[in-house]
């Protein structure tokens, strides 16, 4: 089919969802209309939204695995499974995210992602996010210490040669030897330099931002905390209007007051909702192997044996629901899960419902349950 008319849906044009209709042609949004008048439009196929909420497809810039599959496990099938799992949760695009590993394992993961990219069964791969191995042991969190090392430009050039244009983001600790040089290099290459698993002081962070770092990975987690005589990385990021931050809103990684603080300081244009999910997402409690560690999930909380948090099990639609529950408007919460990550990645046709955008759309009910997910005009998941 070349054209689809989605009618009788509530679309967030303003603060409250309004009744509207969307005309799609050849995988892109051709026009958007408010009200219930759609008789003037003809299409090859019609979808009745039954008055449910239609939002842009969500974009997860930080996900490691889902439904029992870890994208570092060395198989294309694991990446494919994550693509399908993302679609079930209303996520239509994602950055395949690594954990600290040997160079060989990292390159294998990149090879598998490249092999699947362009033929994904669910959510679209929009790039790769390298989290580690250039991280500070002091703030390693669940990252495996035996793989951590200082930033190495020659190694990064090898990674870039393997990944090509798929490499979109690299998380590192700027205070390590070679960290600032790495950040400058990444910026020159058009790759987002993000900071986390870092013991950076306020001054260290300011230097990093001056060199081109523009993003903070899972803000507040895996970094020097705020102290009134040692403000650290977080306060430095708050002072930089161009710096964006990730937030894991799962009722575990961030206290509700901290989520609201991030929102007040950064606003919906610079705050990004993520899952940081491991393979336990969608699987429930149990024991998993992640990053070379045994991870136990109890009541949805993933931890190492010593109590260290080890990623999350939250989904994008759950993160959206929890953000709204904390008092943030639906309009802004949706923006933080859709348009803001798209803008940070320079994806002008993603994360928005407007003429010319990709028809990446999600129909949800008022409980934020996903009814169907569409990627470029094709329904890839239906409840």
Q: Would you identify the regions where 5 or more consecutive residues have pLDDT less than 50?
A: none
Helix tally?
Answer: 10
Helix amount, in percent? 25-40%
CATH homologous superfamily grouping of the largest domain: Metal-dependent hydrolases
Largest sheet: 8 strands, mixed
* Percent of residues in β-strands: 25-35%
How large is the radius of gyration?
20 Å
Q: Using DSSP, what is the number of strands?
A: 21
CATH class of the largest domain: Alpha Beta
For the record, the count of structural domains works out to 2
Structural class: alpha/beta
* CATH fold-type name of the largest domain: TIM Barrel
Distance between the termini: 22 Å
Shape: globular
Describe the structure.
By secondary structure, this protein is an alpha/beta fold. The chain folds into 2 domains: 3-55 and 353-382, Roll (Urease, subunit C, domain 1); 57-344, Metal-dependent hydrolases (TIM Barrel). 26% of the residues lie in helices and 28% in strands. It is built from 10 helices and 21 strands. The strands form 4 sheets. Strands 1, 2, 3, 4, 5, 19, 20 and 21 form an 8-stranded mixed beta sheet that branches. Strands 6-9-10-11-12-13-14-15 form an 8-stranded parallel beta sheet. A 3-stranded antiparallel beta sheet has the order 16-17-18, with no helix packed on it. The two termini are 22 Å apart. The model has no long low-confidence stretch (mean pLDDT 96).
